[in-house]
Amino acid sequence: MGSSQNLSSFNCELRIIRAKNTEFISEGNLFIRYYLVTDNDKRIRLNSREISSTCDPCWNESIALECQGTADAMDKLKEQSIVFELRWRKTTLFSKFGGSKLLFRAEVAWKDVFNSAELSILKWVTSTKTSEYVPEGLKPPALQIEMKIQDTRTLHMPKRCHMRSTKWNECGCGNGACNGRDEDVFALAAALHVL
């Protein structure tokens, strides 16, 4: 039987709650674009649903993430940040074909959540630098988010073998865990839902 390796795993709930200081937008839709970085430095881009720009825009939208990898991969993830962008799109007949305008960009570090007492943060994020679309002299837009880490555990998984065969019975590991690659396992699965 092949050797084994320990994998760490955790679940995270990321909730985009609402925005404030957006009164200067008279028409159009607002949405949040956010970027997650995986173990191999790939960026995953996700968008919230678009909502009408009102004086109190509220999404109350959650995404569930399942992260799994070796201890080194998890340590690397904890050094990363999630980037949030508040974006505006003018509503026209062809608005889906046009681009959106960046109102602000802010980052929240994973380590802020892992270092919190409850493995949870609820905070308003904003950027000191806003875009040219925000009139000068106004309070910068802000976004309220919540992040919760749950179910941190260590799993005992079969170690992947170093052979390049795609047939597990030809590689010599004999346990069916071989997929022909010697890479850290890192899974980022997302399920979007509105509360």
Helix and strand layout, with pairings?
Elements: E1 4-20, E2 29-37, E3 43-47, E4 51-52, E5 58-69, H1 71-78, E6 81-89, E7 101-109, H2 110-114, E8 120-125, E9 142-158, H3 168-171, E10 187-194
Antiparallel strand pairs: 1-5, 1-9, 2-3, 2-4, 2-6, 5-10, 6-7, 8-9
Give me a quick take on this structure.
Helix content is 9%, strand content 48%.
Explain what the structure shows.
It comes from Aquilegia coerulea. Residues 1-125 form the C2 domain. This is C2 domain-containing protein. InterPro entries: C2_dom, C2_domain_sf. The chain has 195 residues and is mostly beta strands. It is 9% helix and 48% strand. It has a single domain, classed as C2 domain (Immunoglobulin-like, Sandwich). The chain contains 3 helices and 10 strands, in the order E-E-E-E-E-H-E-E-H-E-E-H-E. The strands form 2 sheets. Strands 8-9-1-5-10 form a 5-stranded antiparallel β-sheet. Strands 2, 3, 4, 6 and 7 form a 5-stranded antiparallel β-sheet that branches.
Strand count, sense and barrel status of the largest sheet are:
5 strands, antiparallel
CATH topology grouping: Immunoglobulin-like
Share of residues in strands: over 45%
Low-confidence stretches: 154-195
SSE topology string: EEEEEHEEHEEHE
Query: What's the gyration radius in Å?
Result: 21 Å
Distance between the termini: 46 Å
CATH architecture: Sandwich
Helix content: under 10%
What's the mean pLDDT score? 74
